[in-house]
Design a protein that fits this description.
The chain is of the alpha+beta class. The chain contains 17 helices and 14 strands. A hairpin with a 2-residue loop joins β1 and β2.
Length: 449
Amino acid sequence: MSEKGGKLKASPQSKNGAPDTQLSPPPSSRTDRKALQGRSSSRSSSSTHTLGTLLLVLAFAACFLQMFLFRQPDLLNEQQRLQFFDNSAWTLDNSTLNRNIMGVELVTKQRIQSIDAISESKSTIQDVVRKDIKDMNLTADAFPKADIANDEHPIIQLLRNAGINDLTEKDKKHLPDWKALQRLYGNLDEPLIVGLETCASYRNMVPPPKRYAAVAGLFNTGTNAMEHHLRKNIVLNSAWQVPWGKHRMEFVRLNHTASGLEKYNQLEALPIVLIRDPYSWMHSMCKSSYAAHWKSRPAHCPNLVPDEDDRKRFGNEINDTFPVKVIFDEHQKFHWDSLAHLWSDWYNYYLKATYPRLIFRFEDMILHAPTIMKIIADCAGTTVPDAFTFQSGSSKSHGSGTTFLKVVEKTGDAALRVARMSTEDLIYAKEHLDENLMRIFQYSYPPMS
């Protein structure tokens, strides 16, 4: 709109909210018009440049908001739930995942690329981690554990004490880090023991000549190795198992006698019970199940919850779980809903027993066998020999026949601990493994994969 050769333009709003209007003076000459046009062009260019900059800033701001206000909570939630298979920790810092290994943060280009991959493909942190584990071999030597090479490292010293002095560099790379072991099994500076408060009662009830120690525990919990230690490393009579049978349920103690143990008095025994991390134990059961029976496939074992392939394979033979049947003999057959129920039920009977007994962890027996023998000797009122005899070879001629070195390696392998278990299996295990047993014996629940 024009009036008297001028331009009518809108200016900023006035205080009352209505737009003010003002009349621009007409150019007085050609030169003035060119100057005005130049200034107008300059203002237009400047406005365009400012607008472009503003749009660019807004675009970056939108990306920033999307990444950090919307994506970050998801990343952090995944982060909190996720502990990697080698139990090292990852944290989000300045858009980069930093890996903390032995107290030292290592930031790599691959971590930055992984963050970009998450944004571009909308994959989860687990997807990136699984690829990292496959590509970088995180559980082995992608980040070498330098302290393992140190001759003063606890694991190196343990193996040397056991007479294993010829470790190769490959052997050292597969040894567990002490801190990783503690993340799995709690404080390992000294053995965890249940039942020490019953030792005085045992010494008061049983005269020294009649005292004897005898081992008990589920299948695949190191009972043969413990029997070796009781026989070689303590000045005390011992039976190779409790008179009622080392694998049998505790409640048959007074009404069953194992073959060949008829001369032993059940009431005079000091049961030495071994418990093992249930996740590692279930894996060992897949290799050697002994008297336990349940449906399983090599590709899915340990198996607690059937998947689609299981249902195709076993059909109506399974329901919502994989029931376990343990057949000790024709008179003693027991049933459980799953391996998790078997483990929980079996050990709860010994935990709640009111007579003297000692319960040790399988993991502590590996790391603290001499200390454990001294504790048992003190409990029974006796002593240990000056020299300790380790069991460095396989402790049994049946089963997997694993050597001491392999046992140490596998005990600290967090990836193996959950291998072939589905997310549904892990959820089921957390719901049905006895929470009190897990807490008392400091066994950690693995993360959901």
